[in-house]
Prior knowledge:
By secondary structure, this protein is mostly beta strands.
Amino acid sequence: MSLIGGLNTGDLLTVNIPVATIQPFIVDTKGLAVQAGSLGLFQGKADTSAIHPGQTVSVHVTAFTAATSTTIAIATADTVTLRWSRLFAIPTGTSTSTVVNVNSVPAYFNITSASVFPTQVFSGTLGADGVTNLDGISGTAANVNANPPVPPVGLRVLYLENSSNSAQFPFMAAKIRQH
């Protein structure tokens, strides 16, 4: 049963993460072999400095106070898990079997649309655990089309970024889809 009641889409919510009770932040890799250095940008942290616009997180709520006419709702959480972000972007430059560069990410990432996001691709036998699913892309990720007119790609990624927005691979792809 959910502790959260009376909260609707679009309602304001404050989430408190008490330092005394927080479990270290965790990353749901779903089997991808994400390098320890990238995981460390989120995993094991214990404050919101690890969270960036565009990331999808889930929180384990331990207490909830509903909103009143003058006060927004408040939740208390003890676990924060980085989940998969889903987005559309434009492939740019040459792709390889292990890296696809994209830009024109949605504005909610709060980064210039011209910024290039190197996206790590996990190669191996397609359909196997820990391998990036390529949908509409024949062969390897090197075949992602970046020729004009460039069709966008749909991405399901772990978004792991540092405080200066300069991580080597901010996106770790579970799925890349191109039409």
